[in-house]
UniProtKB/TrEMBL annotation:
Biased composition (Acidic residues): 1-11
Renumbered residue ranges of the record's region Disordered: 1-61
Protein family per UniProt: Belongs to the universal ribosomal protein uS9 family.
UniProt-recorded name of the protein: Small ribosomal subunit protein uS9
Low complexity: compositionally biased ranges: 12-40
GO cellular component: ribosome
Length: 201
């Protein structure tokens, strides 16, 4: 009989301890509900919600593009293009659509059709093909390097000629300078990486 009473007292104590915890949780839930109703006019921030709606409405201001070409007082746009060891200096002005490279026509100077299409590409993208006169002086490098230099020079000159062409030229990747160069020759090798023939004896 004596042993049974302590067990009953323990069970009563545990039940009494549980009831205040439940009461506390109920009061905390009521407090949060009250705070929700009182702050209904203010937007709530929750985890993972991201930027508030007010910040999303602000317009993103784009920085102004850097124009590398120049426009002189006579309205002639100038641009310089480089590729490998070739350097092309380009001048563009309103005209009948003539394209001169080192005193020769495009077809006479560039014999490969792919190179001619690459040179005409920025003019056709901006819809100025046949409406402007292009004068080019290019030195150094080979045919491929000179073609890339001319394309970059024409694109920079067109950008200076009309600032509205920047988005079109940038989307077509005409304003990107191709930084690839020929790898230098190393000592003990025939070329940059090609080695001499190995002889066992």
């Amino acid at each position: 009989m004596d042993n049974e009473t302590p067990e009953e007292e323990v069970t009563v104590e545990t039940t009494e301890q549980q009831t205040p915890v439940e009461a506390e949780t109920a009061t905390s839930e009521e407090a949060t509900a009250d705070s929700m109703t009182t702050t209904s006019g203010v937007p709530e921030l929750t985890l993972g919600s991201g930027v508030p709606a007010e910040a999303e409405e602000d317009e993103v201001v784009k920085p102004e593009p850097v124009i590398r070409g120049k426009l002189d007082k006579h309205g002639v746009a100038m641009g310089t293009g480089r590729r490998k060891t070739a350097v092309a200096r380009v001048r563009i002005k309103a005209g009948s659509g003539s394209l001169t490279i080192n005193g020769q026509s495009l077809n006479d100077y560039l014999r490969v059709e792919r190179d001619r299409q690459m040179v005409e590409a920025p003019l056709k993208a901006t819809e100025t093909f046949g409406k402007v006169d292009v004068w080019v002086r290019v030195t150094g490098g080979g045919t491929t390097g000179q073609t890339g230099a001319i394309v970059l020079g024409i694109a920079r000159a067109l950008e200076a000629y009309n600032n509205q062409f920047h988005e079109t030229l940038s989307a077509g990747r005409f304003l990107t300078r191709d930084s690839r160069m020929v790898e230098r020759k190393k000592f003990g090798f025939k070329k940059a990486r090609k080695s001499f023939q190995f002889s066992k004896r």
